[in-house]
Amino acid sequence: MSESPVAVNDRLRDLHAMWRIRALEEKVRDLRLEELIVGSVHLSNGQESIAVAACSELRPQDALYATYRGHGWAVARGVPPRNILAELLARSTGVNGGRGGSAHFSAPEFGFHGENSIVGAGAPTAVGAALAARYDGSGRVAVSVFGDGAMNQGAVTEAMNFAAAFGLGVIFICENNRYSELTPINDMVANPDLSQRATALGIPAVRVDGNDLSQVRTAMSLSVASAAAGRGPSFIEAHTQRIVGHYIGDAEQYRPAGELDADMIVEPIARLARELETAGVGRHAIDRCEARARDEIERAASQALADPLVDPSTAKEHLYA
Amino acid sequence: MPEAVKLNVGGAVNAALARCLEEMPETILYGEDVGKPGGVFGISRGLQKRFGDRVFDTPISETAMLGAAVGAASFGRRPIVEIMWIDFSLVALDQIVNQAANVRYVSEGRTTAPLTIRTQQGNSPGACAQHSQNLEALLLHIPGIRVCMPRTGQDAYDLVLSAVACEDPTVVIENRTLYAGAKEEVTIGGEILPIGGHRRRRDGDHATVVTWGSITTRVLDAVDRLAADGLTADVLEMVWLNPFDHSAVLESVRRTGRLLVVHEAARTGGFGAEVVARVVESGTVLLAPPRRLGLNDSRIPSAPQLAAALIPQTEQIASELREVIGWTHAGDGS
Ligand SMILES: Cc1ncc(C[n+]2csc(CCOP(=O)(O)OP(=O)(O)O)c2C)c(N)n1
Ligand SMILES: [Mg+2]
Which of A5, A238, A290, B35 shows the greatest Cβ crowding within 10 Å of its Cβ? Predict the structure, then answer.
């Protein structure tokens, strides 16, 4: 095969970027099962390509709002894994000193304006980040990430119309992984084309294969350019699959037989590795992406585990100015 | 026919819902993941199989879920809606406060809203700030809404039935940390009790402790610790918060002269303030200033050790109670 060395290197970089998220999520799962992390944890295994591709088009001044399934988005925005793990492990080095936890942490210095555990609630807030940009000259683009199920939350429709009516630079990314917790999205809507809701509000919308980094990247780069140029919001429905439960401990009884096996073939890491192999890239280079990521996460976890636990005497700090 | 069966709290709620669906054909039961999966906590397991389309899953649309309950209730249905976490009811507060609470009053009783919202609240280790709040006081500030908070399996069973049978909008606030606890003996199939009342959990002489919800278990542990020193207290678990059995509190405080109220909800503006105010307003002569113990007015952090520093723990309840019992008016000379 004749792929240029540059293209191959870019794709290996993508593979490594996805492996950093996958390795982090697997580490989080292990720590949760050992009960070193406690409470509800939602992993993004299988959805890594969307975060990697979308964030590669963002600039430092852009503001991203994610959900409880947000560890991967944080990594993709550059938040150090050690401080993410420390947050989940209730260490003082955690990004929020233990106040956020797995489902509600933020790191604004990385343009990661937080997970959110209220379904749909991040969308109106993201609209506000774009509203501020109208006055502050920053050129900031706001990104709101949510799931298929969140489309049924009134706040999301309100946010989309608000952004559309005022031409605000918000990119709405709907990660359609087919399920809202334990319920298939198609049982909860009459029109399975979720992007048409955005279209109806006057927002340019596309549906992409979320497992295809280049499709996500193209949609994202057009959306960022459009928002930055003051041409208003856009909507990207990215089809994906989570190859783990909704939360750690989910028995996943709702999955039809064979679904997960099929998903494991198309999920983005397996897919990109296969594509690289077909393109003639050696097994060693492909495997190195995983090994480097796992090493990094292993080191991050050891550091986080060695960090001091949060100090209970600080519990009331930061409540008010 | 009443019969005693072994159930945990989740099982008791399930049994109560099954009986509602069985005996009250106008009931419908719905919520997110409630139908086919049987609920994220498994509370409605098996009910869709048994009762068909009267039990169903909904989109993640709390406003539509509760608004639809108000509308369906006004046309003869008796909706039972599960709101997975009380924190999520906040996106649909309009339907509870402006809609459900007003229906009967404003229509002079010609339209009613006999609906039940089953939800659950409270902190559990690691839960984030948006999944940890105790919001009963918000609802108790709204005349027109009934509110109860069961803790034991028996109360979970009885209160769900009373709530569903009640002709007014009623919120049953459960606690997820209790659902999967040990099985206990629960009498099912008995008479459906009217709403209201309290549970007297301990008899004592030196103080009255008023409490509700899952923190009652800590209160009982604290009171039992003091018993070693010969100190005893009445413990009143207020399973119904609206209507609230103020007279039971007064009756006890008149005897003990000392009052401590404990809840997991934030201290400031918590319903404990109302309990204390009613006692003070009654003119009952107190031997010590009444006290309230609740969340140390804060957001709730995810880290368990931070949360534990803010939410009353057994030791803190015990020492607070010791102070209430040991307090003497300056100059008493005792
Ligand atoms: C307002 C609100 N309602 C319900 C929930 C409970 N809940 C948490 S995640 C979830 C499913 C969300 O599905 P989707 O939007 O598709 O995102 P996914 O989890 O698949 O990423 C639900 C119902 C919540 N957190 N907030
Ligand atoms: Mg989903």
Answer: A238
